[in-house]
Amino acid sequence: MPEALPAPAVDAHTHLDACGAKTAEDVRTLVDRAEAAGITRVITVADDLEAARWAAEAATWDDRVFAAVALHPTRAEDLTDAAREVLAELAEQPRVVAIGETGLDYYWDFSSPDSQHEAFRWHIDLAKRTGKPLMIHDREAHEDILRILTEEGSPEAVVFHCFSGDAEFARACVDRGYVLSFAGTATFRNANAAGLREAARLVPVEQMLVETDAPFLTPHPFRGRPNEPYCVNYTLRELAELRGADLAELAVATTATAERIFRLDQVGRG
């Protein structure tokens, strides 16, 4: 376990169920460990219908946990009328604070581009109808993501989860008012991460979040080991060093962004 952060932070995107949590006790164990490292609140995110139901319920088990619901783009072909009805109902629950993760994924071929586009457009509309932030999964689809957001009209708040673009794409997103969330990938040292790390240097702090995407993308130097919300601690430390920022100030600033975007302080207790 790392030394606790000097100020509380938020894990803006994790998957507690994929981290092994099934019960309220499991959730409490994970979040207790995160809180010991200074991460006092987490948003657990769904990628299929079962996960969406679980996330919405898990957010009522512990006041440190919030939820986001959607179908992952690789599951876009599962977005039946019945699934839309379930997601729309879950999205109205007060502790569901975002619509996500949705978007486009051109790396995997589990869903056709056409089905992904249709599902993405539907989730954009759901975010508008509920007034909740849109949490975007973008893998090798930068241009189409921006095009569809332009065609549909962006919701009030848009978050690029696990931002994967370079400095140029980051500027395009920032200019549109979007929020960029950085995961363990921003700590990687390989050549492919250079553009991402440059993006992490230039994003205004009021448009910046930090996340784990746990159990995936464990920060350097622990790649290959299981990831958990407490590992936001490592990513925040790396981002502070990368930006030449004070660690406590960056934790406070990213927490303020999370509170503003997801309206965490307006959510009733579970």
Give a description of the structure.
The protein has 270 residues and is an alpha/beta fold. It has helices at residues 24-36, 49-58, 81-91, 113-130, 142-152, 167-175, 194-202, 232-243, 247-262, and strands at 9-14, 39-45, 65-69, 96-105, 134-139, 158-160, 179-182, 208-210. It has an eight-stranded parallel sheet with strand order 1-2-3-4-5-6-7-8. α6 (167-175) links the parallel β6 (158-160) and β7 (179-182). The protein is globular and about 50 Å long. The model has no long low-confidence stretch (mean pLDDT 96).
Count of distinct strands = 8
Roughly how much helix do the residues carry, as a percent range?
A: 40-55%
Rg over CA atoms, rounded to whole Å, is 17 Å
> Number of DSSP helices?
9
| Element string (H = helix, E = strand) | EHEHEHEHEHEHEHEHH
Can you tell me the overall shape? globular
Mean pLDDT: 96
By secondary-structure content and strand pairing, the structural class works out as alpha/beta
